[in-house]
Amino acid sequence: MPYQTINPFNNKLIKEYPTHNDKQVEEALTTAHALYKSDWAQGDIKQRVKVLHKLSELMASRVDELAEVVSVEMGKLIGQSRGEVQICADIAKFYAENAEEFLKPVPYKSDLGEAWVEHHPIGIILAVEPWNFPFYQLMRVLAPNLASGNSVLVKHASIVPHCAETFEKLVSEAGAPKGAYTNLFISQDQVASIIDDDRVQGVALTGSEKAGAIVAARAAGKLKKSTLELGGNDVFAVLDDADIDHAAKAGAQARVSNAGQVCTAAKRFIIHEKVADEFLKKFTEHFKALKIGDPLDISTTLGPLSSADAVKTLSKQVDDAVKHGAKLHFGGKKVTGNPGNFFEPTILTHITRDNPAYFEEFFGPVAQVYIVKNDEELVKLANDSHYGLGGSVFTTDLNRARKLASQIETGMVYVNSPTDTAAELPFGGVKRSGFGRELSDLGIKEFVNQKLVVLAAKS
């Protein structure tokens, strides 16, 4: 696919970007590898976290400017784009302040002698990243790897090239040397060649299940580590003792944030039968109140999908779900009368297990509502999924919440809150949602050599 910026609000082409040829890719690899071998990567961490401090300051000082870049290029509401820029600044600051502590030697008691584990960089990390959080996804990979001394090459999504270039310029402006972070506009074949290169020691991908399988297989074939953050079909469970007003409002926002284009968005709403009617009524009211429009208008509450293809895919999924017996409770169609990529907020009910929608991820403002009789049914339904990324449980009984959170098979569970993210908390999933963790102390240790050193005890 060509790298081009098309405003999803009006489908106008803004700019096309030239791709990098094989010679440019080789130059990037050579530069990145040379930097890994230098004192920049192998020496004092303080020189690297200084860059992260500066990067944090730069992004925090340009929130409005950078947010507009995101909203114009992929359609995110301007308020949400500002939030994305701010969390990027927070992540850079978090690793600037904590990386040295995370990477310090860890002593181990042993009869063999004095023992400790050191943390060293391993080389070049290739990141393949998606469009839905075009700065945040980059920062999740850059910050821990820059702190640890790894060089990062990035293949960003083809529909957000302006974000890709902008982020690379920010990293350079923050003082990172050439080779620390390199953006590449490349093809899938070039990605495969980079993975094969001996100088590349790890691959981080956030994206679709299909892309994850291809990249992970390629990396495994070369005995290289990968981390994957893939799709999600997150549950939003509402128990019979929940605050329904709060749950309905939070649920609606959790489903339509970023126009529903979030891996950890609430997608399967599992409601206790005693409160199902009340929840569905209030949930629907929130959907009806959404204002579709220009993502740069602060009063807009539902923006466009990222592309015309995204609308086609979502439309087909909804149509197929209805053909297989699902009931269309609300919405269900592409919004007509404007040139943008808008899809109505939609609620589907009566989805049975033989309906293809039961196992699919809907990447847009489409909610599935299920009704259960008790907590056992809730857990069974929640875990009957190919995915296991995040989830939410709404209840006033926190002991009950703790028990359910432990039983739900996901990488993350939030109680009385939609799934969220923070620099200090690990992010990732299980099953077909991928493996490995980003952010927190766990994220910085995914791509380091945890080297054991033992000073033998005297015999």
UniProtKB/TrEMBL annotation:
InterPro entries: Ald_DH/histidinol_DH, Ald_DH_C, Ald_DH_CS_CYS, Ald_DH_CS_GLU, Ald_DH_N, Aldehyde_DH_dom, ALDH_GabD1-like, GABD/Sad-like. PROSITE patterns: ALDEHYDE_DEHYDR_CYS, ALDEHYDE_DEHYDR_GLU. It holds the Pfam family Aldedh. It comes from the Bacteria. SUPFAM superfamilies: ALDH-like (SSF53720). CDD domains: ALDH_SSADH1_GabD1. The active site is at 229. One of its GO terms (molecular function) is aldehyde dehydrogenase [NAD(P)+] activity. Keywords: NADP, Oxidoreductase. Residues 3-453 form the Aldehyde dehydrogenase domain. The keyword Oxidoreductase applies. Gene3D superfamilies: Aldehyde Dehydrogenase, Chain A, domain 1, Aldehyde Dehydrogenase, Chain A, domain 2. Belongs to the aldehyde dehydrogenase family. This is Succinate-semialdehyde dehydrogenase.
